[in-house]
Amino acid sequence: MIWLTWRQFRTQATVVAAVLLVMAVPAVITGTQTRHWVAACAASGACLGGPPAALTFMSQFGWVKVLLGGGLLAMPAITGMFFAAPLVAREYDAGTFRLVWTQSVSRLRWLTVKVAVVGAASVLTSGLLSWLTTWWFGPADAANQDKFVDSTFGMRDVAPLGYALFAFGVGLAAGLLLRRVLPAMATTLGVYVAARMVVQMLVRAHYAAPLTKTAPLVGAGAAGDTGIKAATALPPGSWVVNQQIVDASGQPINHPLLMGPDATCAATGSCLAGYQQHLVYQPGSRYWPFQWTEAGLFAAVGLLLVGFCYWWIAGRRVPGRSARRHPVATRPAALAPAPAVGALPTPRTDQAATPRRALAVAPGPHDDSAPEPDEPDAAHG
């Protein structure tokens, strides 16, 4: 069974392995160069006082950033579409499900081998690409300290593992319910993208209660200084969920602030007097708890979908077996009095039966067993 699964799955596995190899070669070469250059720059002291050395050197490898970022963003969806969706739907499309599910291998064993081999390959593929991407962006992430932002959080560390397991579960369930390969693939892509967007925009910020901080605004006080910033900095690596400027009473303002160099308050530095910035943020120390929470959330939904597929198949809700395990009991007809011994049976009222004619059989000359005239014929009794 494992060998059969590999033969059916080897084309997709070979293509994905080739894609990983193509992405890994330039990533390893440029990532190693970046680390050597940063180490040499720090040892010589030539990069002190300017932009971070890693950002300066990695700016020339923008194409690698796009390659790794885009690849990891799309890889869970690709494995869900091309690995999981055809797993069951292909049997329906080809009409081979009756042959497959009537062999010596049970349905549950068949599904278990498929899920174990193909599902493990899906998660492993996204895991390897996530490790490669996290390693390559390591120097830049250390300099920026912005791994918590939306554009970075889902492409680092363990979160892609949960995405891959979720996409696999969606693809498997879609193939089982829709029973067509192409509709199942399209459904997998749509559900995966919608789930990622909903979690990123509405759910992720609420894994833990966010913290708030209100600080007075500074800036636009000195000549030529038109910038606005809060007087108190947030912890390194914090994720700002929401921010707004409020007045002295704590009410948000909806009008622009007049604080240019030509403003009358610029000379006295009172343009921002009474204004504060209200920040809602998640501290950087919550990065790993959030990573494990999001990975666990997607993985749990994916496992539930796989369990649903087991229940659906084991519950005999697929073609090839009747949905009813026991024959339906017919309603018994009304009981009639038993006919007397020797009486003719009463013809059924639900059939257009023609009346039978009694056949008189003359007894033979030597037939001593012939019935008497007043006794019914035993043949009709």
Q: Which keywords apply here?
A:
single chain; 381 residues; alpha+beta; 2 domains; four-stranded antiparallel sheet; 52% helix; flat; disordered C terminus
Q: How would you characterize this protein structure?
A:
The chain is α+β, with helices and mostly antiparallel strands and about 375 residues long. The chain has two domains: about 1-210 and about 285-315, no CATH class; about 210-285, no CATH class. The protein has ten helices and four strands. Strands 2-1-4-3 form a four-stranded antiparallel beta sheet, with no helix packed on it. Helix 5 (about 105-135) packs antiparallel against helix 8 and helix 5 runs antiparallel to helix 10 (about 285-315). The chain is flat, with a radius of gyration of 39 Å. The chain starts with a helix and ends in a 67-residue tail after the last helix. About 25% of the residues are buried. Residues about 220-225, about 320-325, about 350-355, about 360 and about 365-380 have low confidence and may be disordered.
Topology:
Elements: H1 2-44, H2 53-58, H3 62-94, H4 97-100, H5 107-136, H6 138-144, H7 150-153, H8 159-178, H9 181-203, E1 211-218, E2 229-230, E3 239-246, E4 276-282, H10 287-314
Antiparallel strand pairs: 1-2, 1-4, 3-4
What is the topology, as strand order, of the major beta sheet?
Answer: 2-1-4-3
Instruction: Count every beta strand, where a strand is a DSSP E run of 2 or more residues.
Output: 4
If you compute it from the alpha carbons, what radius of gyration comes out, rounded to the nearest whole angstrom?
Answer: 39 Å
Q: Approximately what portion of the residues adopt beta-strand conformation?
A: 5-15%
Per DSSP, the total helix count is 10
Mean pLDDT: 77
CA distance, first residue to last residue? 63 Å
- Uncertain residue segments: 220-226, 320-326, 350-354, 358-362, 364-381
Oligomer: single chain
